[in-house]
Amino acid sequence: MATPQAIATDSSGQTLQQRILKTAAQLFATHGFHAVGMQALCDALQISRGAFYHHFRSKDDVLDDICTRYMTELVHKGLQTLRDESDPERCLQRLGQDLLEVIATNLPELTVCFREIQSLGIERRQKVIALHRKYESLWKETVERGAQTGVLLPYSRTRMKAVLGMYYYSYLWLNPARADELAGAIESFNDITLKGLRK
C-alpha cells in the first residue's frame, strides 16, 4: 500500500503545494499576476479548483507565499553569512554570491518577487517590504562594520541602492541554463561592489 507521503507527491517528488507554487510562479513571471486567472492556473496544473483550494484560499495567497518564501530565504542566508564571516569584504562577496545564486536557481519566483509586489494587498505588501528592508540592513551592517575597521567607505544609502539594484535587476537577463554566465556575473558584480565600497 502506498504511504501518505508517496500519495502526496508526484513522479518528480514534488508535493501538489510545491507544484502549485512553481507553476504559478512561471505563469505570473511570463504573463503577469493579473493576466493569469484561476482557471488558467488550474488548467496548467491539470487539477480541479477543489484541489487548489485544499492548499491555498486564493491566487493572492499563492503570490504572498512566493514573495515571502524567497525573501525569507535571503534573510536567513544573510544572517548566517554575517555570523560566519568576520571579514567585511568576504562577507560582501558571499552576500553577493548567495543573492545571485538564489535569483538564478529560482528565476520565475524572484521575477515575481521583484516585479509583482505591488499586486499584493497593503498588509501583505508591507510584510514583504519589511523583509526587503531586513535583508538590505544586513548589507548595511556589513558596510558599517567595514567602515569601522577602515577598509570600506562610510555607509551611503545611495551607494547601497546602486549596488543592490545591480544584483536585483539581474533577473531581467540572467540565464540559469548557462553556468558560465552566473559565475561571470558573480565575479563581475562582486568586483564592482568591492571597488565601489572600498575606502
Structure description:
- There is one protein chain.
- Helix 2 packs across helix 5.
- The protein is elongated and about 60 Å long.
- The N terminus is likely disordered.
- The chain has ten helices and no strands.
- The N and C termini lie far apart (65 Å).
- It has 199 residues and is an all-alpha fold.
- 73% of the residues lie in helices and 0% in strands.
- The protein has a domain of 139 residues: Tetracycline Repressor, domain 2, CATH 1.10.357.10.
Give structural attributes.
single chain; 199 residues; mainly alpha; disordered N terminus; DNA-binding transcription factor activity; Transcriptional regulator, TetR family; HTH_TetR
What secondary-structure arrangement, pairings included, does this model have?
Elements (H helix, E strand, L loop, with lengths): L3 H5 L7 H16 L6 H8 L3 H5 L5 H26 L3 H18 L1 H9 L6 H27 L8 H12 L10 H19 L2
**What does the radius of gyration come to?**
19 Å
Q: Can you say what the CATH homologous superfamily of the domain at 58-196 is?
A: Tetracycline Repressor, domain 2
Topology pattern, helix = H, strand = E: HHHHHHHHHH
CATH topology (fold) name of the domain at 58-196 = Tetracycline Repressor, domain 2
**Distance, first to last CA:** 65 Å
Q: Give the helix/strand class.
A: mainly alpha
The second-level CATH architecture of the domain at 58-196 is Orthogonal Bundle
Main sheet summary: none
- The count of strands amounts to 0
> What is the number of helices?
10
- Report the CATH C-level class of the domain at 58-196: Mainly Alpha
